[in-house]
Write a structure and sequence with these properties.
The structure holds two protein chains of two kinds.
Chain A: H1 19-25, H2 33-57
Chain B: H1 5-22, H2 38-44, H3 48-53, H4 55-68, E1 73-74, H5 83-89, E2 94-95, E3 108-109, H6 124-129, H7 131-143, H8 156-187, E4 190-191, E5 196-197, H9 200-208, H10 211-220, H11 222-242, E6 252-256, H12 266-273, H13 278-286, E7 291-295, H14 303-306, E8 314-318, H15 323-330, E9 335-338, H16 342-347, H17 350-363, E10 370-371, H18 384-397
Parallel strand pairs in B: 1-4, 5-6, 6-7, 7-8, 8-9, 9-10
Antiparallel strand pairs in B: 2-3
The chains are: A mainly alpha, B alpha/beta.
């Protein structure tokens, strides 16, 4: 049997739009960039989960 | 309601019993974990429409059953598809009790005909390139009556689908926490599973290409099917782990649909279904979670493949297979659940139910590693008397 490895795709699982892409659209960030990234990804996780749960559960 | 000392003690006993059996060890008694769906409605005095369309009624019915039956674990709501949510999104593929089907028939999934499949045969590359984007941009507009396709003028219904769908899903999922707590506090009952998983192949068959379309693709473009399955793997793993039990007690539910022969042939199982499933199960186990293989149909011809998995990494739920043969084949490595035929529980006598349970207890559960349950999810045709017989007999006779 062929061994298949689980890939690490882009965008990564858990987000629809990666922070790195969004970052390019923003003005120069002052203060805490990690905070912007964390909140962006937390909200992305909700959008990601929405579509995958519709697919799997409903 | 705060938990009483009795219920706390009961809960801890049941949790230990259930987890011990799932780890293929011998607990104090055989755990009982019936997957009761529309049966809960019948018992609690609701109809199928009520428990499908108002999840608070489904939750109430589940609690009533857990309170009245001496069950170790139940699913917090086995009538899992809340049709209120599918309606909010505008999903086309469900028949809802009271709309497309009678009030007292359980909700149904309706696979579209091949020509109306939600994914076309020439779209495998687009799916593989970005599965999440494909689902939002291509799949959902086809699967929903309200979501419009990319490039078309937006509509009021389109916007409402996302807002209502998102809010409704949040409302539903956040209600599970209190429901699980209620089962624990009021009934001392364990929530049986956490998280959801399906095989990449089944995702293609169930919701994207349809079974007929996919079987044609397996002959006409097998390499594209494999690539798409590979692309789905990390996402299905991510979703499974996201919903898993943080305490690593109860398993992730894996709903196995059409990956077995004769839905596909052995070569397709060996070259496509299993190679894109096995690494995910291994990775889930590396993360410390068991997977409940809810093996709908007959999987006997694939048990050798499942034996390649690490010991105790799965619990095998037996549907139409011969549970005695399954036990002989894999019982040394994995716990087994189910195997009590639904037909027996629906239409035969309590004596016949007790006799079959005795045979399963004697031959399958004798060394532990067995969880009592029906073969398949129990709907409203199941007899209340027979469920009482199964429960009471197991409690009486199923003591180690």
């Amino acid at each position: 049997m062929k061994e298949i490895k689980i890939q690490q795709p882009t965008p990564k699982p858990g987000v629809c739009i990666e922070w790195e892409q969004k970052r390019k659209e923003l003005p120069p960030i002052q203060g805490d960039e990690e905070l912007f990234k964390r909140i962006w990804e937390n909200n992305e996780a909700l959008a990601y989960m929405y579509i995958w749960q519709v697919l799997l559960s409903f | 309601m705060p938990m009483t000392q009795d219920n706390e003690q009961l809960y801890q006993q049941r949790l230990k019993r259930y987890v011990t059996a799932m780890r293929n060890e011998k607990p104090d008694k055989i755990p009982i974990r019936p997957f009761v769906a529309e049966f809960t409605a019948k018992y609690a005095g609701y109809n199928c429409q009520q428990v499908a369309h108002d999840y608070t009624m489904a939750f109430e019915a589940a609690v009533q059953c857990a309170r009245d039956f001496d069950w170790d674990a139940v699913v917090a709501n086995m009538v899992y598809v809340w049709t209120g949510l599918s309606q909010a999104i505008g999903l086309k593929y469900y028949a809802t009790p009271g709309l497309e089907i009678p009030v007292d028939t359980g909700f149904q999934y309706r696979e579209p005909p091949e020509k109306n499949a939600f994914m076309k045969p020439n779209e495998y590359d687009a799916l593989a390139a970005d599965p999440t984007g494909f689902l939002y941009n291509v799949w959902l507009p086809r699967a929903s009556n309200d979501v419009v396709e990319i490039g078309s003028p937006s509509t009021y219904r389109n916007n409402l689908s996302f807002l209502k769908g998102g809010m409704a899903m949040l409302s539903y999922f956040t209600a599970f926490g209190p429901q699980i707590q209620r089962l624990q506090n009021e009934c001392g009952t364990v929530s049986a599973i956490a998280g959801i998983f399906k095989a990449p192949f089944d995702i293609l068959a169930d919701k994207l290409r349809g079974y007929i379309g996919l079987t044609m693709d397996l002959f006409e473009r097998p390499e594209k099917v494999l690539k798409a399955c590979e692309a789905l793997m990390p996402h299905l793993l991510h979703v499974a782990l996201s919903g898993a039990d943080p305490d690593k007690n109860v398993p992730i539910g894996f709903w196995m649909h059409r990956g077995c022969t004769p839905f596909i042939n052995q070569e397709q199982f060996d070259n496509l279904y299993w190679p894109t499933l096995k690494p995910i199960i291994q990775e889930i186990w590396r993360n410390g979670h068991q997977v409940l293989f809810y093996a709908e149909g007959k999987w006997m011809r694939h048990l050798d493949a499942f034996l390649e998995l690490p010991e105790r990494s799965i619990v095998f739920h037996c549907d139409h297979d011969d549970i005695f043969e399954v036990h002989k084949k894999i019982g040394h490595k994995f716990a087994i659940s189910g195997g009590i035929p639904n037909f027996l529980l629906a239409y035969e006598t309590p004596d016949k139910v007790r006799a079959f349970c005795k045979k399963v207890i004697d031959e399958v559960a004798c060394d532990g590693g067995y969880i009592m349950d029906a073969s398949a999810i129990m709907q409203n045709e199941i007899s209340i008397e027979n469920i009482k017989a199964m429960t009471e007999f197991t409690r009486e006779y199923g003591v180690y």
